[in-house]
Design a protein that fits this description.
heterodimer, A: two-stranded parallel ribbon, two-stranded parallel sheet, 10 helices, 4 strands, B: 87 residues, mainly beta, 5-stranded antiparallel beta sheet
């Protein structure tokens, strides 16, 4: 038997990979699922949006990914003038690269040899979605949202980032209208790499400040 | 010299964007951000007047006292002007 699954000794059969099949989702809708359907149907009934427009927006959001942010970071690593524009007006610099970020007000904070920045939204889950796509699930948890401001260094260590005591940790709480992107420090040993190759080193977590770029 | 401000300790009911853990804490204006429609009214579909918004920088020692992991680490948050008193 590939795995033991306590509580699954009744006979559903197992999938080819040896796991029990997931049960059908027959539970009643939750309150907020009903609210979403009701609001969407009303908007469609009143002619404010069409189902095709709703689907197109979902497609547009799903098409956004951390690769957009990685391209911005790699450009900043290669082009000092672009980096200066990015740090003074993050939104305009992203638009200059052709990204459709909507009304996003982006503040970019730079990691240096003395400073490590990280981003949290303690009140909800604010995140630069129109640049990076949807946030990771852990970013939205109450554990991350409270611990990132109380014990950021401990949380960073759990993510594999050991910030020495000689460096300052700066936590940025997205409490209102700004959204934040960390500009990670360019890894050593990347002098010969071009912008596309550099973008491949930039991880999602490194742009939240909960990781570092990959080493070449 | 940076401008010092304190977050007011008021506790109005309803939707606010000034987190409890910063109320009564003193920090420095990191940068002004311009005026944005007040989310405390937007949340209720009301006609929201623009309010000045600031990034305020606090030390971890100011927020957490002796429990801070490292006193000189900082936390920046966006706080609306009507939540701030100048010192």
């Amino acid at each position: 038997m590939p795995h033991d699954h306590p509580g699954h000794d009744h006979d559903h059969g197992l999938s080819p990979s040896g796991h029990p099949f997931r049960a059908d989702n027959d539970a009643p809708l939750t309150y907020w699922q009903r609210m979403e359907i009701a609001a969407r149907e009303l908007l469609i009934e009143k002619g404010i949006v069409t189902p095709a427009e709703v689907a197109a927006q979902i497609d547009a959001m799903d098409a956004r990914s951390p690769a957009n942010g990685a391209a911005v970071v790699a450009r900043a690593w290669c082009d000092p003038a672009f980096k200066a524009r990015l740090l003074s007006n993050g939104s305009d610099a992203c638009r200059e690269m052709g990204f459709d970020i909507g009304a996003l007000h982006l503040v970019v904070v730079e990691n240096t040899e003395d400073v490590h920045n990280l981003i949290v939204c303690t009140l909800c889950s604010c995140y630069p979605r129109t640049l990076l796509g949807l946030p990771p699930d852990w970013y939205k948890t109450r554990a991350y949202r409270s611990r990132a401001v109380i014990e950021p260094r401990k949380v960073l260590r759990e993510f594999g980032v050991d910030v020495p005591d000689s460096m300052t940790v700066r936590v940025h709480d997205s409490t209102a209208d700004m959204r934040y992107l960390v500009l990670p420090a360019r890894p050593a040993g990347t002098d010969g790499m071009d912008e596309t190759a550099l973008a491949g080193l930039v991880t999602r977590d490194s742009m939240i400040g909960m990781g570092l770029p990959k080493q070449p | 010299m940076a401008e010092r401000v304190r977050v007011k300790t008021m506790s109005p009911p309803g939707h606010v964007r000034a987190p409890h853990y910063l109320r009564g804490k003193t920090g420095e204006i990191e940068r002004p951000l311009g005026a944005y429609k007040n989310p405390e009214q937007l949340a209720y579909g009301l006609d929201a007047a623009p309010k000045e918004l600031f990034r305020v920088r606090f030390t971890m020692a100011e927020i957490w006292g002796d429990r801070a992991e490292r006193a000189e680490d900082t936390l920046d948050a966006e706080i609306y002007a009507h939540w701030l008193e100048r010192l």
